[in-house]
Amino acid sequence: MSYLVIQNLHKRYGATLVFSDIDCTVERGEFVTLLGPSGCGKSTLLRCVAGLTEVNGGRIELEGQNLLPLPPQKRGIGMVFQSYALFPNMTVAQNVAFGLRMQKVPKAENARRVAEVLELVELSELANRYPHQLSGGQSQRVALARSLVTRPRLLLLDEPLSALDARIRKHLREQIRRIQRELGLTTLFVTHDQEEALTLSDRILLMDAGRIVQNGSAEALYTQP
Ligand code: ADP
Ligand code: ADP
User: Fold this and answer.
1) So what's the pLDDT on residue 206?
2) What whole-number distance in Å separates Cα of residue 219 and Cα of residue 27?
3) pLDDT-based confidence at 85, cuts 50/70/90?
4) Dihedral, CA atoms, 109, 113, 119, 124, nearest 10 degrees?
5) Which of 18, 20, 85, 175 could disulfide-link 41, Cβ–Cβ 3.0 to 4.6 Å?
6) d(CA 56, CA 152)
7) Residues linked to residue 13 through DSSP beta bridges, in sequence order
8) Where is the ABC transporter domain (predicted)?
């Protein structure tokens, strides 16, 4: 069975149907991109997996475990959003440590894990800076570090590069892919940017108007009639 299984997923906001029958899977260690135009339901699908919004039917299983009854913090999922929303009064290191403090991870281990993950995103030198002292790219790396430090079994990336300028976007894209490979992290990445999808993914799910209309490698997506 696949690592992440989404079956027959239904979601509406009030009377507005976002999708009524989504089926997809992600294998362990795979980097899958959900590509589609704005408004087609990509974010909503990620939010359903993360438990940030209720689903109206269907199943979501991770490692054979039904996720739907679990609150977000019990799902073992890390998520990064387009806007990084760091705590302004905490340093980079404190921002990253926060999730572990909530999990009551002992102080020494917490410090060790924070240092390790800051190294991974190449931010060790900026550990004592405050968010207002960071560039957009640096802030997004803090957000990434913050989600990685809890060692999630699934990473959800919701347009994490869209707010950044082109040069930084390309650099961070490569960095995300390197980290994902290094950690063997199963990743579901959302974007409306074809180039991002083509360069990052093991596999692309093409989404349109609440339906997954194609599923395959980047090459397959562009060699079909
Ligand atoms: P995408 O991520 O592909 O841009 P979204 O998942 O954000 O798409 O949105 C899918 C649809 O659901 C859109 O029509 C959007 O307007 C609607 N929608 C998203 N969030 C909400 C919400 N909180 N309440 C009502 N409608 C929403
Ligand atoms: P990058 O390209 O690495 O994402 P920038 O080119 O935007 O970053 O910034 C270059 C350097 O200036 C970085 O080391 C960053 O930490 C620093 N910097 C950016 N904005 C500020 C600020 N408001 N206060 C202090 N240092 C800053």
Assistant:
1) 96
2) 19
3) confident
4) -60
5) 18
6) 25
7) 16
8) 4-225
Give distance in angstroms: CA of 34 to centre of ligand 1.
15
User: Token pair for residue 116?
Assistant: 């390790």
What's the CA gap between 47 and 51, in Å, rounded? 6
Tokens representing residue 84 in the block = 């990084």
3-state SS of the chain: helix, strand, coil percent to 5? 40, 25, 35
Give the ligand with the smallest distance to the CA of 132: 2
Candidate of 122, 128, 138 to mutate for ligand 2, largest count of ligand atoms within 8 Å of Cβ: 138
Q: How far is the CA of 136 from the centre of ligand 2 (A)?
A: 8
Ligand 1 proximity of 44 Cβ (cutoff 6 Å): yes
- The answer to whether the CB of 191 is under 6 A from ligand 1 is no
What pLDDT digit, counting tens, does each position of 160-185 carry? 999 888 888 998 999 999 999 999 99
Q: Is the CB of 40 under 6 A from ligand 1?
A: yes
Q: Is the pLDDT of residue 224 over 80?
A: no
Q: Can you tell me the ipTM of this complex?
A: 0.71
CA of 132 to the centre of ligand 2 (A): 10
Q: How far is the CA of 97 from the centre of ligand 2 (A)?
A: 22
Asked if residues 165 and 197 have their Cβ atoms less than 8 Å apart, the reply is no
pLDDT computed for residue 40 by the predictor: 97
- Report pTM: 0.87
In angstroms, what CA-CA distances link 26 with 30, 32, 218? 7, 7, 15
